[in-house]
């Protein structure tokens, strides 16, 4: 229900601009100095562990929390302390947010009724919205007569029927079971492409985030850690937190042995590893983190003669393997006790190394990344 | 009850429960019994009659008292229940819950005679203070504000009934999810509209129960009302003065029996209504939910 | 409130500078009940202390400071009566607990959840008749040739009517139990919310008998609610005047009766002293209870 006569949207301005936003609850800091810009028409995901502040950020954008510091601009206009109903946003909640005493039609049409639309227009719009979410045959049901997935679809319809430009989704799929969640993810993505408005989606599930997102922001401990395209976040994480949260990364602690030119030599558990410097500032002797995704690690048996120190491999002892269906994870232990995982497609019936057998873990030059914070 | 429980032990416990209720009800039923006796209270012979019920409306003292009582009940309910609702909303949102809880539930723990005496002396002193203040600034405007009257009785009864309304409303609110209010706000409804369209329909049962409770409590209250009422008489105070002086008239028995009949009917229908509603809701839910394939 | 400072950090658009009066008024509307309770409940109750040291005049009181009313209370038969009523009130609490609390346990444990509230609602039926009429109706039940005595004699259990049932402390205790028993059921029911149903299954699984289960598990978990219910009964046993007035005999005088008698005798400072003493008793009990059990827990199922 954006006001039709007075345009609230400035097409050139980003849909959402968060500037220096902080939110405190007494002594507890839920958000500290967050800055983020979300373009109009973008599917943006806030990803992070629970309690990290992502929901707080979403709800502050929606007007359910007052910022302690900083401001929020929607389409270039500061929304200050406007209540939720005065903002160009609408929201889909985790669960329990349907009005239990109303039918599906009444639920979806509620916002239009509040806006004072004529009845026939309401009927038309509600029908169209329900069609889009595939619920046309359930119009007269009450919420408790719907399955969890259907309930969330009704919430979606209730939100998109309002034609607002920003849709906030607060863990919309968290209450659904795994298979349904996968299906609904794709539906969400397609719906967003169809209606073309900005979606901001909060989740702690990285697969969900990867499926839907144009861009992902990682939020933990009240900080916006990193944001970027899904692919970049996964393949080239900037911060070690991102590496540890997204994908299945091996995290290695080490000390800089030598920093020269574009690469650095890091001493990890007695091995010298070479890693791209990425323009970071490192000094000799500095403690750093290395990350490498488990599917990039190859595991070979060591037969005494091989294992040259090439800077792209490390020696350890074999621990055990875990069969996961599509992939198998091989676990090995480095001399300092760190566990490393090598994940491979489970298509071989090769005999596995026995426990405590020496193994060599190796990777290609671009796969290992340096983190200095 | 579980599959392995002893069915007879279970029935025995039920019997005990009903027996206790019955024992508690004895005096009530005794009043009802007497109200149908031609010969009134204490007579050896029992002759069934409706006569006294017919005579209720000819007893002017009772009718006058009944009018006062009804008025008091209506006024107190109209103030108490919305206040309890506001208080419950405040309590839900409050960070420090101890203070509101203490303030709203403490009247439960203050015995009637103590509350009545304290308020009586407070109002009298307040009245004197206001008269004195009026004299100082040359006005008699405040003179009768807190003279014992309908107003003081109303205040006393609000304090008496608010904890009950508060608890009843809070219990029904417990089942309400605040996400629904937020969803309504996200749909464009302002705070009041969200409350009225979404929350109120779901706590309506509690609000109405609170109303029923308040009316019944006011109707039956004696101590606080009689201490604070000033000039008029309510139904119960008339009964008591009869009791303590001449003995209750048979129509008084009929009257109090009638009041309890009405009250029991109200509570009984609330119980029945919620039971039938819950039953039919779950039945339609089952019927409708079955063919769903998602 | 912390939120008031929140505009400091960001530029607030001009439109929101003047908050509409409705929004500024709303928080006060929610506080109105509390303000009312402070003005007409908390302050009057606190003022009893002040009024109790005022000088008594012929028909009223005048400002002053005297401890005469307290002397009048503590150095007379009133103190003995008060302490006696405490004893009998405690007995009533114990009887109510023994008869009433198992009902709360039974309702929570063995009755389907949807029906629980309705079963508990049965116990408010007695309140549909004015307490005073209910108590008054106990006279013909308990008196020398009343319902109880005639029934017992007809059954041949006793030969002589029991006269101790009415106009004695026993009469008052019976009246208290019949008036207040529902409250232990209510508070017990609320308290049992703190005892999840699976506890019973765990106890069965571990082979814990009903008695140990009650003492080791139920009692500690339900303690706040039980305590609140007991304080309620105890204080009302001390403070409801009409019970000793109608059912009690010589010496059965509780604080409520002392206060009302003082008011009838126009000794207002004494009535206030009694009220102040009662409030002190109540506050002390609730304070101890809160320190021991954290009484706010009772309301957690509601919030």
TrEMBL record, chain A:
<dbReference type="InterPro" id="IPR013611">
    <property type="entry name" value="Transp-assoc_OB_typ2"/>
</dbReference>
<dbReference type="Pfam" id="PF08402">
    <property type="entry name" value="TOBE_2"/>
</dbReference>
<dbReference type="GO" id="GO:0016887">
    <property type="term" value="F:ATP hydrolysis activity"/>
</dbReference>
<dbReference type="GO" id="GO:0022857">
    <property type="term" value="F:transmembrane transporter activity"/>
</dbReference>
<feature type="domain" description="ABC transporter">
    <location>
        <begin position="16"/>
        <end position="246"/>
    </location>
</feature>
<keyword id="KW-0813">Transport</keyword>
<dbReference type="InterPro" id="IPR027417">
    <property type="entry name" value="P-loop_NTPase"/>
</dbReference>
<dbReference type="InterPro" id="IPR050093">
    <property type="entry name" value="ABC_SmlMolc_Importer"/>
</dbReference>
<dbReference type="InterPro" id="IPR003593">
    <property type="entry name" value="AAA+_ATPase"/>
</dbReference>
<dbReference type="InterPro" id="IPR008995">
    <property type="entry name" value="Mo/tungstate-bd_C_term_dom"/>
</dbReference>
<dbReference type="GO" id="GO:0015847">
    <property type="term" value="P:putrescine transport"/>
</dbReference>
<dbReference type="GO" id="GO:0005524">
    <property type="term" value="F:ATP binding"/>
</dbReference>
<protein>
    <submittedName>
        <fullName>Spermidine/putrescine transport system ATP-binding protein</fullName>
    </submittedName>
</protein>
<dbReference type="Pfam" id="PF00005">
    <property type="entry name" value="ABC_tran"/>
</dbReference>
<keyword id="KW-0547">Nucleotide-binding</keyword>
From TrEMBL, chain B:
<keyword id="KW-0813">Transport</keyword>
<dbReference type="Pfam" id="PF00528">
    <property type="entry name" value="BPD_transp_1"/>
</dbReference>
<feature type="transmembrane region" description="Helical">
    <location>
        <begin position="253"/>
        <end position="276"/>
    </location>
</feature>
<feature type="transmembrane region" description="Helical">
    <location>
        <begin position="16"/>
        <end position="36"/>
    </location>
</feature>
<keyword id="KW-1003">Cell membrane</keyword>
<feature type="transmembrane region" description="Helical">
    <location>
        <begin position="65"/>
        <end position="86"/>
    </location>
</feature>
<feature type="transmembrane region" description="Helical">
    <location>
        <begin position="203"/>
        <end position="220"/>
    </location>
</feature>
<keyword id="KW-0812">Transmembrane</keyword>
<keyword id="KW-1133">Transmembrane helix</keyword>
<protein>
    <submittedName>
        <fullName>Spermidine/putrescine transport system permease protein</fullName>
    </submittedName>
</protein>
<feature type="transmembrane region" description="Helical">
    <location>
        <begin position="98"/>
        <end position="123"/>
    </location>
</feature>
<dbReference type="InterPro" id="IPR051789">
    <property type="entry name" value="Bact_Polyamine_Transport"/>
</dbReference>
<comment type="similarity">
    <text>Belongs to the binding-protein-dependent transport system permease family. CysTW subfamily.</text>
</comment>
<dbReference type="GO" id="GO:0055085">
    <property type="term" value="P:transmembrane transport"/>
</dbReference>
<keyword id="KW-0472">Membrane</keyword>
From TrEMBL, chain C:
<keyword id="KW-1133">Transmembrane helix</keyword>
<feature type="transmembrane region" description="Helical">
    <location>
        <begin position="28"/>
        <end position="54"/>
    </location>
</feature>
<feature type="transmembrane region" description="Helical">
    <location>
        <begin position="162"/>
        <end position="190"/>
    </location>
</feature>
<dbReference type="Pfam" id="PF00528">
    <property type="entry name" value="BPD_transp_1"/>
</dbReference>
<keyword id="KW-1003">Cell membrane</keyword>
<dbReference type="InterPro" id="IPR000515">
    <property type="entry name" value="MetI-like"/>
</dbReference>
<protein>
    <submittedName>
        <fullName>Spermidine/putrescine transport system permease protein</fullName>
    </submittedName>
</protein>
<dbReference type="InterPro" id="IPR035906">
    <property type="entry name" value="MetI-like_sf"/>
</dbReference>
<feature type="transmembrane region" description="Helical">
    <location>
        <begin position="119"/>
        <end position="142"/>
    </location>
</feature>
<feature type="transmembrane region" description="Helical">
    <location>
        <begin position="88"/>
        <end position="107"/>
    </location>
</feature>
<dbReference type="GO" id="GO:0055085">
    <property type="term" value="P:transmembrane transport"/>
</dbReference>
<comment type="similarity">
    <text>Belongs to the binding-protein-dependent transport system permease family. CysTW subfamily.</text>
</comment>
<keyword id="KW-0812">Transmembrane</keyword>
<dbReference type="GO" id="GO:0005886">
    <property type="term" value="C:plasma membrane"/>
</dbReference>
<keyword id="KW-0472">Membrane</keyword>
């Amino acid at each position: 229900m954006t006001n039709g006569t007075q345009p609230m949207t400035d097409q050139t301005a980003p849909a959402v601009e968060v500037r220096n936003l902080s939110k405190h609850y007494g002594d507890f800091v839920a958000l500290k100095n967050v800055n983020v810009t979300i373009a109009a028409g973008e599917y943006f995901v806030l990803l992070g562990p629970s309690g990290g502040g992502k929901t707080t950020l979403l709800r502050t954008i929606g007007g359910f929390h007052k910022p302690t510091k900083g401001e929020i601009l929607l389409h270039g206009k500061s929304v200050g302390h406007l209540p939720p109903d005065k903002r160009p946003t609408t929201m889909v909640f985790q669960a329990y947010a349907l009005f239990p005493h109303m039918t599906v039609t009444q639920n979806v049409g509620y916002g239009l009724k509040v806006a004072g639309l004529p009845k026939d227009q309401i009927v038309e719009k509600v029908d169209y919205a329900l069609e889009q979410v595939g619920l046309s045959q359930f119009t007269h049901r009450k919420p408790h007569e719907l399955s969890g997935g259907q309930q969330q679809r009704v919430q979606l319809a209730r939100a998109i029927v309002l034609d607002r430009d920003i849709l906030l989704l607060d863990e919309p799929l968290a209450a659904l079971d795994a298979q349904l969640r996968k299906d609904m993810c794709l539906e969400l993505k397609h719906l967003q492409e169809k209606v073309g408005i900005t979606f901001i989606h909060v989740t702690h599930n990285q697969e969900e985030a990867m499926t839907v997102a144009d861009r992902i922001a990682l939020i933990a401990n009240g900080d916006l850690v990193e944001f970027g395209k899904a692919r970049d976040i996964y393949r080239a994480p900037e911060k070690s937190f991102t590496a540890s949260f997204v994908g299945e990364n091996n995290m290695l602690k080490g000390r800089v042995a030598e920093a020269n030119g574009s690469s650095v030599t890091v001493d990890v558990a007695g091995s010298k590893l070479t890693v791209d410097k990425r323009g970071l500032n490192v000094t000799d002797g500095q403690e750093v983190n290395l990350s490498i995704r488990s599917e990039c690690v190859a595991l070979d048996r060591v037969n005494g003669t091989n294992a040259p120190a090439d800077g792209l491999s490390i020696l350890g002892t074999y621990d055990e393997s875990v069969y996961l269906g599509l992939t198998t994870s091989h676990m090995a232990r480095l001399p300092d006790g760190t566990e490393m995982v090598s994940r491979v497609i489970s298509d071989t019936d090769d005999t596995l190394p026995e426990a405590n057998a020496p193994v060599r873990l190796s990777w290609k030059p671009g796969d290992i990344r340096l983190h200095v914070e | 009850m579980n599959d392995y429980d002893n069915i007879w032990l279970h029935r025995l416990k039920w019997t005990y429960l009903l027996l206790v209720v019955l024992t508690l009800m004895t005096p009530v039923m005794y009043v009802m019994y007497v109200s149908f006796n031609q010969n009134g209270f204490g007579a050896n012979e029992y002759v069934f009659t409706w006569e006294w019920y017919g005579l209720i409306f000819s007893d002017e003292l009772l009718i006058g008292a009944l009018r006062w009582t009804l008025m008091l009940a209506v006024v107190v309910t109209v103030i108490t229940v919305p206040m309890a609702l506001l208080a419950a909303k405040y309590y839900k949102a409050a960070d420090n819950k101890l203070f509101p809880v203490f303030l709203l539930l403490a009247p439960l723990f203050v015995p009637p005679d103590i509350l009545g005496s304290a308020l009586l002396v407070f109002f009298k002193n307040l009245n004197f203070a206001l008269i004195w203040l009026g004299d100082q600034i040359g006005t008699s405007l405040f003179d009768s504000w807190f003279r014992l009257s309908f107003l003081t009785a109303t205040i006393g009864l609000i304090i008496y009934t608010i904890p009950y309304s508060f608890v009843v409303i809070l219990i029904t609110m417990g089942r309400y999810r605040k996400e629904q209010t937020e969803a309504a706000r996200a749909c464009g409804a302002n705070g009041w509209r969200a409350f009225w369209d979404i929350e109120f329909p779901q706590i309506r049962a509690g609000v109405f129960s609170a109303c029923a409770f308040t009316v019944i409590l006011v109707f039956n209250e004696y101590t606080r009302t009689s201490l604070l009422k000033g000039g008029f008489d309510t139904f119960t105070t008339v009964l008591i003065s009869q009791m303590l002086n001449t003995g209750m008239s048979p129509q008084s028995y009929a009257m109090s029996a009638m009041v309890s009949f009405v009250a029991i009917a109200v509570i009984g229908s609330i119980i029945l209504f919620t039971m039938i509603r819950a039953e039919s809701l779950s039945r339609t839910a089952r019927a409708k939910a079955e063919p769903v394939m998602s | 409130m912390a939120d008031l400072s929140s505009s400091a950090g960001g530029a607030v658009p001009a439109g929101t500078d003047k908050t509409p009066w409705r929004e500024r008024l709303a928080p006060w509307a929610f506080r109105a009940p509390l303000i009312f309770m402070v003005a007409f409940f908390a302050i009057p109750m606190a003022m009893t202390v002040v009024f109790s040291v005022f000088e008594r005049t012929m028909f009223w009181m005048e400002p002053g400071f005297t401890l005469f009313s307290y002397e009048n209370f503590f150095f007379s038969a009133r103190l003995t009566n008060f302490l006696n009523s405490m004893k009998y009130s405690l007995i009533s609490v114990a009887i109510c607990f023994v008869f009433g609390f198992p009902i709360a346990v039974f309702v929570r444990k063995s009755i389907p959840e949807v029906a629980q509230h309705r079963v508990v609602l049965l116990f408010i039926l007695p309140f549909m008749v004015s307490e005073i009429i209910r108590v008054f109706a106990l006279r013909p039940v308990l008196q020398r040739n009343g319902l109880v005595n005639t029934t017992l004699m007809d059954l041949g259990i006793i030969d002589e009517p029991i006269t101790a049932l009415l106009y004695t402390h026993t009469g008052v205790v019976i009246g208290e139990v019949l008036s207040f028993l529902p409250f232990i059921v209510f508070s017990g029911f609320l308290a049992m919310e703190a005892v999840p149903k699976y506890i019973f299954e765990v106890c069965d699984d571990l082979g814990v008998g009903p008695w140990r289960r009650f003492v080791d598990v139920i009692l500690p978990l339900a303690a706040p609610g039980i305590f609140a219910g007991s304080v309620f009964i105890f204080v009302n046993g001390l403070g409801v005047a009409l019970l000793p007035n109608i059912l009690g005999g010589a010496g059965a005088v509780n604080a409520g009766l002392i206060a009302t008698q003082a008011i009838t005798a126009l000794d207002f400072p004494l009535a206030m002293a009694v009220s102040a003493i009662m409030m002190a008793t109540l506050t002390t009990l609730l304070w101890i209870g809160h320190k021991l059990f954290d009484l706010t827990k009772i309301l957690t199922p509601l919030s």
